[in-house]
Amino acid sequence: MSAPHEKSAVPPEDVFVFWTAVPTDLDVSDILSHLDAADRLRAARFHFAQDRAAFAVAHGLLRAGLDRVGGPHSWRFRQMPGGKPVLDGAHLPPLHFNLSHTRRLTAVAISRAGPLGVDVETIAGTRGHQDVAGLVFAPEEKALLQAAGGDRWDDVFFTLWTLKEAAVKATGQGLSADLPAFAFALDPPRLRTAGPDGSGEQDWSFHSSRVAGCRLAAALRAGPGTPAVFHLSEIPVAALSPASP
Ligand SMILES: CC(C)(COP(=O)(O)OP(=O)(O)OC[C@H]1O[C@@H](n2cnc3c(N)ncnc32)[C@H](O)[C@@H]1OP(=O)(O)O)[C@@H](O)C(=O)NCCC(=O)NCCS
């Protein structure tokens, strides 16, 4: 899928977005055995099996995606202030990444070009979302929702929400960012204001699509005029448990 700046003279940067659906009642012991001790400890803390499964699938998917883009490595991670995980180690390829998980779907975005954010949300009923929309959306976004009305309201809500969350995950601010202070336009998705960190609209590329009953958005903040091409592909859950050497 191409980015809004595809006619620019600058060659587009690749963003790889991998996704894996999470089956119900999935046995994740194989996937967990390929994660590191810290991730296995985090997985053990989940109360509900489906949340533990989604976590394991997401972190298995992250390693599988990094292997595909950067070649096989023993990937190590550290956290930035604010909690955003990044690669840790001068021996590792200079890749940016981000991940997101719901009980149904997990996604990972990877690129060499710059900081990334990705978000997936299950498209569910609108109960309570009117209140959330009032708190997190900019006036221009509320107008888009109002224009969507009835049948399209849910999809526009989750399209805008996942784009906003992907943007604040790219900057590392997370939900501590001032969400109503920046606004998206749709079709194609693009900023109509400065970004959440005050960056210019030209610094960003976005992708939004519907995958397995969920909304998925990815955001790349690569600097002025750097266009991006988003490559979306599935990695089946069976591919996350490679045979042990
Ligand atoms: C990061 C955040 C937006 C994730 O939202 P979510 O919808 O619950 O979860 P998602 O599944 O989409 O993403 C979770 C993943 O994002 C990544 N992540 C965590 N913190 C992040 C951050 N600040 N920026 C970008 N990515 C982050 C992690 O990989 C995490 O998965 P993991 O815990 O399994 O490793 C949200 O948890 C948040 O805002 N956290 C607080 C950040 C904050 O307030 N920091 C204070 C600044 S000092």
Write the layout of secondary structure elements.
Elements: E1 13-21, H1 29-33, H2 37-44, H3 49-70, E2 77-79, E3 85-87, E4 96-101, E5 105-111, E6 116-122, H4 129-136, H5 139-171, E7 184-185, E8 190-191, E9 204-211, E10 214-221, E11 228-234
Parallel strand pairs: 1-11
Antiparallel strand pairs: 1-5, 2-3, 4-5, 6-10, 7-8, 9-10
Helix pairs in contact: 2-3
Task: Describe this protein's structure.
The chain has a single domain, classed as Ribosomal Protein L22, Chain A (Alpha-Beta Complex). Helix content is 31%, strand content 25%. The chain has five helices and eleven strands, in the order E-H-H-H-E-E-E-E-E-H-H-E-E-E-E-E. The chain has helices at residues 29-33, 37-44, 49-70, 129-136, 139-171, and strands at residues 13-21, 77-79, 85-87, 96-101, 105-111, 116-122, 184-185, 190-191, 204-211, 214-221, 228-234. A four-stranded mixed beta sheet has the order 4-5-1-11, covered by helices on one side. The protein has a three-stranded antiparallel beta sheet with strand order 6-10-9. A two-stranded antiparallel ribbon has the order 2-3. The model is unreliable at 1-8 (pLDDT under 50). Bound molecules: coenzyme A. Coenzyme A binds at residues 55, 58, 82-85, 98-101, 119, 165, 169, 172, 174-176.
